[in-house]
Design goal:
This protein is mainly alpha-helical and 222 residues long.
Length: 222
């Protein structure tokens, strides 16, 4: 195991960095996607409600690996058939889109639940003071909802971090993909995957502790 760490530590740390980068990019875009569809779901417009529900159900109903294949292989082929022969997606771009879409569907539910946890009287009071629906949501409801959403968002970050391993199927050099390479080069699968597992565990346990600490502080602040 020490030989693998000495020889491949730079590759492993670089892959971990790419894994975290992919997770962060995906979560940022997922927050935007989730906010859009969550607001559609909590509004009173039935068309928007239908669109928001359709997106959440459709994306959550498709395995991430299928979504990754569709975006990495299917979308470029479809666009090329329209005459854009130079169009292509890198593994990072396709992976970010796939994870953002997948994570965004779950984020939409987290945000929707956070908004609905705020007493409806808050919205009614702000509207009675002359604020528009948008300003009421932005300045009154969302700041309160965020308090309840933070632990769930961190947990979703952890789930997304683990889901990056699926993107090894499209060639993105994240930690699992590099683990396959090192295992193939050294023929030491047990040691290699033990190291990869420990690296994942360190990051995920750290994030879990952060989530629990934030949740405890928020509970004390209520």
């Amino acid at each position: 195991m020490l030989v693998i760490i000495e020889k491949y530590s730079a590759m492993l740390l670089g892959a971990l960095g790419k894994t975290i980068l992919l997770t962060l990019l995906s979560l940022i875009f997922a927050m935007v996607v989730g906010m859009i569809f969550a607001l559609m779901n909590v509004g009173k417009n039935r068309v928007f409600n239908f669109i928001g529900t359709l997106y959440v159900d459709a994306v959550r109903g498709v395995p991430l690996i299928v979504l990754a294949y569709f975006i990495f292989f299917g979308v470029p082929q479809g666009i090329k058939s329209l005459g854009f022969q130079d169009f292509r997606l890198t593994a990072l771009q396709a992976g970010t889109i796939a994870l953002a879409m997948n994570c965004g569907a779950y984020m939409a539910e987290i945000i929707r639940a956070g908004i609905e946890s705020v007493d409806k009287g808050q919205m009614e009071a702000s509207r009675s003071l002359g604020l528009s629906y948008g300003k009421s949501m932005r300045k009154v409801v969302l700041p309160q909802a965020i308090r309840t959403m933070i632990p769930s968002i961190i947990n979703q970050f952890i789930i997304t971090l683990k889901d990056t391993s699926i993107l090894s199927v499209i060639g993105f050099p994240e930690l699992t993909n590099i683990g396959k390479t090192i295992s193939g080069n050294t023929f030491k699968s047990l040691q290699t995957w033990a190291i990869v597992g420990i690296m994942y565990m360190i990051v995920i346990v750290t994030l879990s502790r952060v989530a629990k600490r934030i949740e405890r502080r928020m509970n004390r602040g209520r």
